[in-house]
Amino acid sequence: MTLERFLTKAVTSWMNEEGPNSEIVLSTRIRLARNSRHHTFPTLFTDEEAEEVLTKTKEAMKGQFDSLELLQMKDLQDLQKRVLVEKHLISPNLAEDTAGAAVFLSENEDISIMVNEEDHLRIQCLYPGLQLKEALKKANELDDKIEEKFDYAFDEEAGYLTTCPTNVGTGLRASVMMHLPGLMMTNQMNRIIPAIGQFGLVVRGIYGEGSEALGNIFQISNQTTLGKAEEDIVEDLLRVVHQIIAQEKSAREALVQTSGIQLEDRVFRSYGVLRYSRIIESKEAAKCLSDVRLGIDLGYIKDVPRTILNELMILTQPGFLQQYAGEGLKPFERDLRRASLIRERLEMDDSQLKGGTDL
């Protein structure tokens, strides 16, 4: 396993798998925030303490997690860190290259353990589709193994202690990434987002807090971590997500019934833009990819894999484009490269379907 492998492959094996409700839920993430009892928390610790935490983490990982690859931020270029952010393997905060900042990654990238981010440790598990319980079980298994050699900051009444008060308690952030074009086209999201907030959940864009919902992709996660068991947090999120899935399906059915030909026209116009554009900006690409993914789900477009949205949403981001090009690119050059990559990817599907071998 090498750094290059994490930087050059847009879609990993877990993203290529079909999970439950994967026509709407792209992925599930469970993240646990943990801190060392014996070190100052990251917002106040010294560089020496940060390095001590990293050393302690390496010791805790030895023997049980040897299959994970350690990447230290100080050894990476800015562009390489940006690619890892775009793939959701590290956070923008970790990419700021503070002392002792690092990440342990599994080969198929379903496990990411960040060191010296906002907290000393952030244990992350990623699954395709809607698999919150499965992801929580895996994260807890990792957490238990690490805790055998890593003394966590824990209070009998408050629970796990974290840098941000909103994470105190379980330290759990459970989230699902959902593709919701039907609710957006029928103007229902503005009503749904405030309602979700009443259940102690929050809706964010594709890259978390402060980001846009590019391509009609939203992250829905819990806000409350204190006073509730992990299982209850996950169950509450599951209930709401299932309701949103039902509403998205209903919105899609209504669009087909009331505006079927217009919807089909929109899908194929977007498909044409992706197939033949020579220049395309990131927002337009995200919008067209969302339309095409919807067209695949509704059966308008045949023989194009559903995972193409996952893949091209990453492959067409600025960092990945420049990594693929092997050099820094100006905005106009990125728009040219983005269009070229999309065309190549779609043509590759055609070649495979026709029995061709040229990739």
What does this structure look like?
The structure is a single chain. With 359 residues, this protein is of the alpha+beta class. The protein has a domain at 251-349. Helix content is 45%, strand content 15%. It contains eleven helices and ten strands. An eight-stranded antiparallel sheet has the order 2-3-4-5-1-8-10-9, with helices on one face. Helix 7 crosses helix 8 (282-297), helix 8 runs antiparallel to helix 9 and helix 10 (318-325) packs across helix 11. The longest helix has 47 residues, at 230-276. The radius of gyration is 21 Å and the shape is globular. The two termini are 24 Å apart. The relative contact order is 0.13. The model is unreliable at 352-359 (pLDDT under 50).
Question: Could you list some keywords that capture this structure?
Answer:
Arg_Kinase; EC 2.7.14.1; globular; ATP binding; single chain; 359 residues; alpha+beta; disordered C terminus
SSE blueprint and pairings:
Layout: H1 3-8, E1 25-34, H2 47-61, E2 69-72, H3 78-86, E3 102-105, E4 111-115, E5 121-128, H4 132-147, E6 154-155, E7 159-160, E8 172-179, H5 181-185, H6 189-197, E9 201-204, E10 217-222, H7 230-276, H8 282-297, H9 308-315, H10 318-325, H11 331-353
Antiparallel strand pairs: 1-5, 1-8, 2-3, 3-4, 4-5, 6-7, 8-10, 9-10
Helix pairs in contact: 3-10, 7-8, 8-9, 10-11
Number of helices: 11
- State the helical fraction: 40-55%
| Total number of beta strands | 10
Strand residue percentage: 5-15%
Described by the principal axes of the CA atoms, the overall outline is globular
Largest sheet: 8 strands, antiparallel
* Mean pLDDT across all amino acids: 88
> Could you list the spans in which at least 5 consecutive residues all have pLDDT below 50?
352-359
Look at the helices and sheets and give the structural class. Answer: alpha+beta
The SSE order reads HEHEHEEEHEEEHHEEHHHHH
Strands of the biggest beta sheet: in what spatial order? Answer: 2-3-4-5-1-8-10-9
Q: What is the CA–CA distance across the termini?
A: 24 Å
Alpha-carbon Rg, integer: 21 Å
